[in-house]
Structures are given as structure tokens and as C-alpha cells.
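Please predict the structure of the following assembly.
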Amino acid sequence: MEDSKAPVSEHGGETSKAAVLGVAASSGSRRAATRGLAVLDLILRFVAVIASVGSAIAMGTTNQTLPFFTQFLRFKAQYSDLPTLTFFVVVNSIVAAYLVLSIPLSIVHVMASRAKYSRLVLVFFDAAMLALVTAAASAAAAVVYLAHKGNARANWFAICQQFDSFCERISGSLIGSFAAMALLLLLILLSAAALARS
Amino acid sequence: MEDSKAPVSEHGGETSKAAVLGVAASSGSRRAATRGLAVLDLILRFVAVIASVGSAIAMGTTNQTLPFFTQFLRFKAQYSDLPTLTFFVVVNSIVAAYLVLSIPLSIVHVMASRAKYSRLVLVFFDAAMLALVTAAASAAAAVVYLAHKGNARANWFAICQQFDSFCERISGSLIGSFAAMALLLLLILLSAAALARS
């Protein structure tokens, strides 16, 4: 008999064999679905890298010099004038670096769809990076809001009235960071779904 | 025979029964460990509720009136003067409400330790709330930093030099929110670990 090495009792061979085949078929289609999730995970990671790198570059390269100056002062604005925007550039670079490093692990998950503990590690670090990029994006958004609107009660002046193109640039660079945030949220959901399926 | 209703073939009863008992024993100890994770999850949720409610109350009830005033102005500071701090109070209330609503589901997980899809829902909403509370806490932190240090390049004045007790209070109220953030990060890890074990 061919299936004598299988861990089913030899006497009930016919029914057991059918049951084993059924389990194999259903776990096969399950594995294919989990592999689909892993491929989607890989694609989203690439998009998130582009979003956060784009965000860091857009913020890091912005500066504006006003066309008038006094004897002592040149009116020049760049991201490093505001510590929060420096934090934004640093964090987006860190998150992009993490995402690049996580891509090999994501490729492993496409091959080995039953991996559990490496997925668990990814969920944790994805959540930590979600917190980090959200912190940077919203702190920068709070400062950009102040730059646009100012605050009458605190006597903070709306600097965007002078530095208009600088303000447009720093507002735009927030988009990539918020996109990376949404993608990381999706990545956590995908990893958790893969864990629930395995 | 007692186990005739069980889905094992009757002929190989002895070996199959032993195998089933072995599986049951190992899944029993596994289930106990998963239940331990679920109890920890429940406790952390209670702590996170206290942290975020405390944070919202500390920020919401703060105000300071300076002991001098002119004919037209009274110098008074409260959280609603800065939109970012209003956002902070609103988000902390929302997160606290979500955490309270999630407690019944967490209790269900202590009983039914094999629940998968409800854990998946919790992971997703926990991650969304993590993003929300991080956004509020770090936007408020950015504004509190400006209130303390000001910014010479943007001509933003450090209002904490006048409103000292107001500033101490709003700085302190950030702690609860950052604690809630760390707890939510742990809760995501716990749910993912429970999913990996089930």
C-alpha cells in the first residue's frame, strides 16, 4: 500500500485518505490567499518608501530668500529654522530606511507563507514606525498651521504672508508623510490578517 | 464505544484516541497562555483609559489669568486659545471612549481564547487609535515646545515667560497621552501574539 507511511491508521485507509486530501486542498487554497496578502504587503512597502523619501526630500530641499534685505539681515527661510521640521526630515528618513530593510523579510513571507514569528516582529515594528511617522507628520502640520494662520492670543505672526512659496512647499511635503502613515496602517492590518489565516 | 461519534475511524480507535488526547493536552496549555495574554490585554486597556481621560481633563481644565490688566485687555490663557490643544482634548476623549467600548470585546477574548476575526478588528482599530492619539500628543508637544522656547527666526515669542503655571500644566498633560500611545503599541503586539498562537 502506498500510504502506509502516512500517520493515519491503515484500517480506515479509504476514508482517512479522502479526509487528508480534502485538508490538503483547502490548506492549498488558503496558502494561495495568504501569499496574495504577502505580495500586496510587498507592493505597499515599496509605495510607502517612495512616499516617505519624497516627503523628506521635499521638506529638506526647500528654502526661500526674500528679494529685499537690510544692512544687517537677509530674510531667508529654510526647514532647519524650525526644529519641528528638522524632526520631520529625520523621522521620514528613518522610516524610509526601516521600510527598505523590511522588504527582504516581506519577500521571505511571499515564499514561506506560514511564517508566524517573523510576521509578529513586523507587526510590532510597523506599529512603532506608524507612531513615529504620525508624530513627525502631525507635529509638522501643527507648526505649518501656525505658520499659515498665526495665533492672535499668543501674538504669533503668520509668517506665510511673507514666505509664501516656502509655506506652499512645506505644506505639500506633509502629503507624503500622511500617505506613509495610511500605508503603514494597512500593512499592520495585512500582517494581522496573515497571522489570523496561518 | 464512547467515541463512536468522534470524527476518527472506528477501526484504528486506540491510536487515534491517544493522538486526539495528546493534541487536546497541548492545545489546553496553549489556550491557558493565550488567556493570560487576554487578561493582560484587559488590564492594559483599563490603564490606557485612565491615562487618556486624565490627559484630557488635565488639559481641559487648565487656565491662568495674569494678575495685571489694562483698560481693554485681561491677560488670560486657556487651552481653547490654541486650536492644537483643543484637538488634543477632543482626540483624548475619543480614544478613551473607544477604549471603554473595546473592554467588553476584550472580556469576550478572555473567555473565548480562539476568537480570530474579532481580534483582527481590534488590531485594526487599536492601530487607528494609536495613530490618532500620537497625532494629538505630538502636535500638542510641538506647540508646547514653541510656547516654551519660541522661535527667533519666525518672531514667535515664548509665551511661557508670562504664563508659567499654564505652561507647566499643559506640558504635564502630555504625559498621559504619550503613556496611552505606548500602551496601545503594546496592545497591538499582544493581539498579534494571540493571533499567532491561535
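Residues 32-197 of chain B form a domain with the Four Helix Bundle (Hemerythrin (Met), subunit A) fold (CATH 1.20.120). The first strand of chain B starts at residue 63 and ends at 69.
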